[in-house]
């Protein structure tokens, strides 16, 4: 049996296999609208056989964008374009999900290929928001610390984003609580110096995420899975740790979260990260082993045998593919062949399917 190509069932959703396209910003939107690029890029990965295609970080409010070119889900008008994408992915036998995001103190930059620098309001940028008035690095603007009303508004923005995601036909929602963006900034003591009920103790630092989870879950029918991506460690003394992740996982499980997608890092500019093949898998493994919550493994997973081993050995339930899926949109079809799993190819491509 090839474990990677066993269906993955959560609530009322069946993924045809365990390969998920990791959310990846395309910086190809204007005013948050998806474009033909999204349809072709994401559609190709559904044609390529992925079980779930996760759309990039979609901002739940304009101030929550990393760049002016980010995908958004802050207005009802965004739904129609997204619906076109979810409809197409479904025709290919894939499922779709969207990552709801707020960039927090890392907002207001230009896109990587436009220089990736901070944008001042005069250059079309805006004032970033964060838990505390602490900049990510000297090159980053100092964010405005959110007040209670601002926090309530953020929760409401995620709620409305979740409602629109359901209207757009996504099977899965993933909340972005990783990589030093707003929810992660609240969670980590390195970026949160608040003295109110959203700072200080572990319970206080995860409060915003739990409020966002509750608001999101309330907008989702019971048959749709909710995933959360975290940075399972800050890789930095005094920061968020793997044990914090395990503790959080238990709370998320009780709150109706179905899978923890375990990435790491990016809340501070300098961290000691042992980057190498599958270097983050151990966090997915630890959370799954210690809590029983389903997990996703991501990060430098680039070949079929490696992905199969992760799922077969119970380290994670799904494998998320980032850059390898940009190099090869058909990675799942190629992996199936390599591992000897007989999967359906698109009818249009049937004559090209290699014999097992
Ligand atoms: C990313 N990544 C990312 N992560 C995330 O949670 N939301 C996002 O929108 C993005 N955007 C993004 C854009 C691009 C171009 C890249 C390359 C990466 C991180 C990505 O999902 C993944 O976690 C990492 O790339 C590590 O996995 P790989 O690439 O080693 O398979």
TrEMBL record:
SUPFAM superfamilies per UniProt: FMN-linked oxidoreductases
Q: What does this protein need as cofactor?
A: FMN
List the InterPro entries. Answer: Aldolase_TIM, OxRdtase_FMN_N, YqjM-like
Q: Where are the transmembrane segments?
A: none
Task: Give start and end of each NADH:flavin oxidoreductase/NADH oxidase N-terminal domain.
Answer: 4-339
Query: Is Nucleotidyltransferase given among the entry's keywords?
Result: no
Instruction: Please name one Pfam family that this protein belongs to.
Output: Oxidored_FMN
Keyword annotations for this protein, in alphabetical order, are: Flavoprotein, FMN, NADP, Oxidoreductase
| GO terms of molecular function | FMN binding; NADP binding; NADPH dehydrogenase activity
What is the recorded name of this protein? NADH:flavin oxidoreductase/NADH oxidase
């Amino acid at each position: 049996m090839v474990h990677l190509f066993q269906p993955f069932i959560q609530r009322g959703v069946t993924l045809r296999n365990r390969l998920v396209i990791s959310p990846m910003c395309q910086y190809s939107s204007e005013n948050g609208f998806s474009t033909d690029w999204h349809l072709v890029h994401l559609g190709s990965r559904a044609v390529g056989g992925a079980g779930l295609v996760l759309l990039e970080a979609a901002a739940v409010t304009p101030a929550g964008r990393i760049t002016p070119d980010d995908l958004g889900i802050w207005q009802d008008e965004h739904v129609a374009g997204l619906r076109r994408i979810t409809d197409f992915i479904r025709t290919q036998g894939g499922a779709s999900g969207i990552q709801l995001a707020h960039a927090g103190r890392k907002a207001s930059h230009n896109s990587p290929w436009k220089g990736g620098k901070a944008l001042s309001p005069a250059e079309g940028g805006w004032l970033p928001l964060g838990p505390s008035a602490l900049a990510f690095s000297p090159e980053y603007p100092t964010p405005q610390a959110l007040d209670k009303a601002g926090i309530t508004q953020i929760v409401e923005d995620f709620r409305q984003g979740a409602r629109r995601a359901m209207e757009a036909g996504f099977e899965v929602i993933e909340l972005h609580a990783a990589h030093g963006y707003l929810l992660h900034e609240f969670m980590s003591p390195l970026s949160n110096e608040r003295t109110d009920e959203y700072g200080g103790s572990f319970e206080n630092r995860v409060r915003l995420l739990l409020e966002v989870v509750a608001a999101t879950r309330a907008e989702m029918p019971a048959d749709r899975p909710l995933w959360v991506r975290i940075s399972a460690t800050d890789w930095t003394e005094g920061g968020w740790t793997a044990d914090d992740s395990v503790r959080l996982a238990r709370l998320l499980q009780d709150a109706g979260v179905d899978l923890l997608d375990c990435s790491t890092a990016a809340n501070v500019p300098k961290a000691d990260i042992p980057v190498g093949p599958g270097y983050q898998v151990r966090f997915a493994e630890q959370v799954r082993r210690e809590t029983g919550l389903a997990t996703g493994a991501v990060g430098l997973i680039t070949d079929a045998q490696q992905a199969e081993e992760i799922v077969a050995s119970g380290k994670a339930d799904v494998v998320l593919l980032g850059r390898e899926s940009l190099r090869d949109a058909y990675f799942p079809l190629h992996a199936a062949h390599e591992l000897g799993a007989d999967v359906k190819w698109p009818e249009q491509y049937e004559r090209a399917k290699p014999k097992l």
